[in-house]
Amino acid sequence: MWNITKMLVDLGPSVYQDDFERPFLDAASDFYRLESQQFIETSDCADYLRKAEKRLNEEIDRITHYLDPKSEPKITSVVEREVIGNRMKLLVEMDNSGLVSMLIDDKYEDLGRMYNLFRRVPTGLQTIRDLMTSHLRDTGRQLVLDPERLKDPVEFVQRLLDEKDKYDKVIQLSFSNDKTFQN
């Protein structure tokens, strides 16, 4: 396979791009669109993210063995768009396994994987930040509006500090101390 793609490159960039790369990228886009649909229907968020990470790594590995290195950003862009970008809203909002569940259950590794995959697409981190902000506001609102908690001010303040510590730890361990998440 390497010899064939090398021959196409040697015949000229337009031969490689027009006769091989463009049809290859179109077929890859179709493949990943269908596969990601199957993944999302049969997986929870954490499993889907593991599969997405695996697919991305497989494509990068495939390029080093079979394709012209100039194809790497193009095929990774296809995988990122089809497997991550087009599915990220569904992923973060998944019942019992999406972002909020991961935050509540301290799933640092899964949150880190989500962060690393989502940062590869243009609005990925914003998608995480928006839902996380909404979750933090709801959590804070529940604490402040709970009449039982207000009876013991020391416990109330301690609970607020515990929540802050929890999410500081998430940002540190899973989101690489990203300043935009700290804000």
UniProtKB/TrEMBL annotation:
Q: Where is the Cullin N-terminal domain?
A: 3-183
Protein name per the record: Cullin N-terminal domain-containing protein
Question: InterPro entries under this entry?
Answer: Cullin, Cullin_N, Cullin_repeat-like_dom_sf
List, alphabetically, the PANTHER family matched. Answer: CULLIN
Q: Which is an annotated Pfam family here? A: Cullin
Family affiliation: Belongs to the cullin family.
